[in-house]
UniProtKB/TrEMBL annotation:
Record keyword Transferase present: yes
Protein name, per record: Beta-monoglucosyldiacylglycerol synthase
Species classification: Bacteria, Pseudomonadati, Pseudomonadota, Alphaproteobacteria, Hyphomicrobiales
Compartments where located: Membrane
Gene Ontology terms, MF aspect: hexosyltransferase activity
InterPro entries linked: GH, Glycosyltr_2/OpgH_subfam, Nucleotide-diphossugar_trans
Length: 876
């Protein structure tokens, strides 16, 4: 018997998997894995970067050589040995070098360059330090007089553009240098500076204009043409004046700038095309720059990558012939190898379908691609300062995220693409001639409303089973108003119902269950446990106890369900969220005999319980602890998704969060207690059971801890990104977080539509409620990982007519959610040049705010609903 308010869910599935999915034999699985690996290889082959560009024969006319860093201390000088090694490499590729200063060791450049046959465009660094400016000018003039390979002097570098001096001031300095210089004198600045300051053009012998298409935001395809167009504008504005492109270049790595996307191939193609066309047009130019400068971070994370040589003086590309990536197939090998190794786990699945095996292997190979991306990044980038910190923190978090995502993909494919579950109890086929052993039903209670507990006891009395008893234990409840009505009802129901009231009992619920076990008749073979709020179906024992005819079965679990889901929209969402676990997660875990035992609606063989040591108080999830111990001893467990009992939902959202915190803390306690039994030989658990428990824990509280840690780290990192104090985060580290969110979203929606019979709106509510406890689970699990100073055990309030508190139930979540949203919006609004990495970082901050905002939304809706209720009925 079940009344209409006792829950409508019967465990029926909508869109359930059917027989159309055929299981593959092991040979078929191997063929699928080989096919996916072959497709992965073909994918890398199709995407191999090959390009042609104009051939450049001979040496470049000039390249920038700058070993002067703005962040260098005043006394730091470039060693002569370093200059000689640099110029020796450059001399093989260029006819001249341009320097940016004439002191701090760079005064040695003209002499060493002369020995190597290099001409020098000698720079004079000008800034706001007048004493230093004077040293630069005097040194440069002296070097020009003493070294015939100095062909011109360049006064300042973008000094007007940086607003360190006015155009008139630089013009005056240029005129002063010209009076004493034996060679032509110019000043170097952004091309538009010369259009805006004709006084500079009047003062110089040559216009030394910086035309850098990357900083103009040009795409690679339009960069060369656009740069020559800017050169033509200068030539048209100042006819008769020599126009030199003082800087032209493109970075080989780093962030995008508007439409400009750096990369090794784009750098090579663009420079070769530019040089070839400039040579034909007879344009004088200087390539920026000769050698990568890893310390040049003031330009963001493109700063280190402008060189045509890397920091180790290796040429980045060839100037003739096809452009190829010599390390491409090394990365492909890493991707395919890791993907193939990961995909071997598909072989452990019991008869996967074709689509299931293919999708799982594909996901594994995508992880291999990401690992190859990390290897490429590590090889092609200079990890300095902020990038080192980012990688040190991000890679371990992403390393944990990968197995979590793969586990969710595995569960998703099992539900949506896999075969129909085979181990669910087939209740339509009764066990013939089965014994009906005596069952002792235990009902522990602590300060429970009497009317609720009376309804539970009455439902037990209606059980259609010939031989059972019921032991009701009320512990630590001194107020007679709570236990006297229960005692009277047990007396009225006869000797099968035992009532025990115990005060000052230590050990939480487990202690009460030990008391119940001590009061159990000696011939009871099966122990049934239900919570004090559960109304049970009369067929519960009659249907399930016969399954213990198999002597290897140690326990049988039926799902939790609730009869008050219609109380409010929040309670409906809570109920749907619970249903998801019992119709999805528990069904899949049951396939490998790895269910989680819950302390209600479970039946346990007494000998299995005794062998496992009974109820233990060293964790606060005594039910899951005992269930795992029973499985570790080699017993079988069974699960049915048919509902046989309906309890009450937590009274309010705070009670829901308190319950979830207790579960999370208890799970961590169980991990601490049982981890040694997961080692080889530590227990009778098989590989599948160990994997299911380990990844189940990781996917639940492990993923929440990782998510919260990542959110906190990104909040701390956000100001550094906004103010560009450190390098901009690379998409390589950002895309996995977005992918994980999308996989989780797809996993939730697909699994619910396949297995959980709830409307779309209720499914959405379940998703919001599920996300809303991220902080609760993460904080409880984190605290439980350390030596306990608190018990974490709090009774879950049930059965009340309203919320039992007046305060907002999501204050920490509101703070973190607001900070994440504010941070994300700040990142978006300050990203003037639409840097991809910055936009992705902002998107991740918004995504990470969703669980926190979900908690705020649920708590706020609860308070709003309560306020409306009291407003409509002020006397209630």
């Amino acid at each position: 018997m079940k009344t209409s308010d006792e829950g409508s869910s019967q465990g029926g599935w909508i869109g359930a998997t059917s027989g159309r999915h055929e299981n593959l034999p092991i040979v078929g699985v191997v063929l699928i894995l080989c096919l996916v690996a072959g497709l992965h290889l073909a994918f890398w082959s199709l995407l191999e970067p090959r390009a042609t560009a104009a051939a450049v024969d001979g040496k470049l006319p000039s390249v920038s050589y700058n070993r002067f860093a703005k962040s260098s201390s005043a006394n730091l000088e470039v060693p002569e040995t370093r200059i000689r090694a640099d110029l020796t490499a450059i001399a093989k590729q260029a006819k001249a070098v341009r320097t940016y200063g004439s002191t701090k060791g760079l005064e040695r450049v003209p002499e060493i360059a002369a020995e190597l046959g290099l001409a020098v465009t000698l720079g004079i660094w000008i800034d706001k330090d007048e004493a230093r400016n004077e040293r630069e000018i005097e040194t440069a003039l002296d070097l020009a007089r003493r070294n015939s390979n100095v062909t011109r002097l360049v006064v300042g570098n973008e000094t007007v553009f940086r607003r360190e001096h006015t155009g008139a001031q630089i013009a005056a300095i240029v005129r002063r240098v010209k009076r004493d210089s034996p060679v032509p004198v110019a000043t170097a600045d952004h091309w538009k500076t010369f259009l805006d300051h004709p006084e500079l053009v009047d003062a110089v012998d040559q216009v030394f204009a910086h035309i850098i298409p990357y900083w103009e935001g040009y795409s690679r395809k339009s960069a060369v043409k656009g740069s020559f167009a800017l050169h033509d504008r200068l030539r048209a504005a100042y006819p008769g004046k020599k126009i030199v492109i003082g800087e032209f270049g493109w970075p080989s790595a780093g962030h995008n700038f508007e439409r400009a996307v750096p990369g090794p191939f784009s750098q090579a193609r663009l420079l070769r095309d530019f040089v070839a066309e400039a040579n034909v047009l007879g344009i004088d130019y200087n390539i920026v720059e000769a050698i990568d400068q890893p310390e040049k971070l003031f330009e963001g994370n493109v700063g280190p990558y402008w060189g045509i040589f890397d920091a180790s003086l290796r040429p980045k590309f060839a100037w003739t012939g096809p452009l190829v990536d010599a390390d491409y197939w090394k990365a492909a090998f890493v991707a395919i190898l890791i993907g193939s190794l990961f995909s071997l786990s598909v072989l452990a699945l019991p008869g996967p379908t074709v689509s299931q095996a293919a999708v799982l292997a594909g996901a594994d190979h995508l992880v291999g691609d990401w690992c190859a991306g990390v290897q490429i990044y590590w090889h092609d980038h200079y990890l300095l300062h902020g990038e080192v910190i980012t990688f040190v923190i991000a890679l371990p978090l992403l390393g944990l995220l990968a197995p979590i995502v793969l586990f969710r993909v595995r569960e998703l494919t099992a539900v949506a693409l896999g075969s129909k579950p085979t181990r669910l109890l087939n209740l339509s086929s009764p066990v013939l001639n089965a014994r009906l052993p005596k069952v002792s039903v235990h009902v522990p209670a602590y300060r429970e409303p009497p009317e609720m507990l009376l309804r539970t006891i009455d439902s037990v009395a209606r059980l259609d089973y010939p031989d059972f008893e019921c032991v009701v234990v009320i512990n630590n409840t001194p107020d007679p108003a709570f236990w006297e009505p229960i005692e009277r009802r047990c007396r009225q129901l006869g000797p099968r119902f035992k009532f025990v009231c115990v005060l000052n009992l230590e050990g939480f619920k487990a202690a009460a269950l030990r008391v119940a076990l001590a009061e159990t008749v000696s011939d009871a073979e099966i122990i049934g446990v239900i919570d004090a709020d559960y109304v049970v179906d009369p067929q519960w024992l009659k249907d399930l106890v016969p399954r213990f005819a198999d002597p290897k079965v140690g326990l049988i679990q039926a799902p939790q369900d609730h009869r008050d889901g219609c109380r409010s929209s929040i309670h409906a969402a809570m109920n749907a969220e619970y249903a998801g676990f019992f119709d999805i997660g528990m069904v899949e875990r049951n396939e490998v005999n790895a269910i989680i035992v819950h302390g209600t609606m479970c039946l346990i063989r007494r000998t299995a319980m005794d062998a496992a040591g009974g109820w233990s108080s060293d964790t606060i999830c005594e039910d899951s602890d005992l269930g795992l111990t029973i499985l570790e001893l080699g017993w079988r467990a069974h699960y049915t998704n048919r509902r046989y009992g309906w309890g009450l939902l937590p009274q309010d959202y705070l009670a829901f969060k308190t319950q979830r915190a207790r579960w999370a803390a208890g799970a961590v306690q169980i991990v601490k207690k049982h981890w040694r039994r997961f080692l080889p030989g530590g227990s009778l658990l098989d590989h599948d059971q160990k994997r299911e428990f380990a990844f189940g824990w990781l996917s639940w509280f492990g993923s929440e801890i990782v998510a919260v840690a990542a959110a906190l780290f990104n909040l701390i990192w956000m100001p550094f990104v906004v103010f560009q104090v450190v390098a901009i985060p690379d998409p390589l580290l950002l895309l996995p977080s977005i992918a994980a969110f999308l996989v989780s979203l797809l996993h939730f929606v697909s699994a619910y539509r396949t297995r959980v019979a709830v409307p779309y709106l209720q499914m959405f509510g379940a998703m919001v409620v599920f996300m809303s406890v991220q902080w609760t689970v993460a904080s409880a699990a984190f605290r439980a990982a350390f030596p306990a100073r608190e018990t974490y055990f709090h009774r879950t309030r049930k059965g009340g007519s309203g919320i039992a508190h007046a305060r907002f139930a999501a204050i920490p979540e509101a703070v973190f959610g607001a900070l994440l949203v504010a941070g994300g919006l700040t990142v978006f609004l300050t990203n003037t040049y639409r840097l991809l990495g910055t936009d992705l970082f902002g998107a991740i901050l918004i995504i990470q705010s969703l669980p926190f905002l979900s908690a705020v939304g649920v708590a706020g809706l609860e308070l709003l609903s309560e306020a409306r209720k009291y407003k409509s009925d002020p006397l209630d």
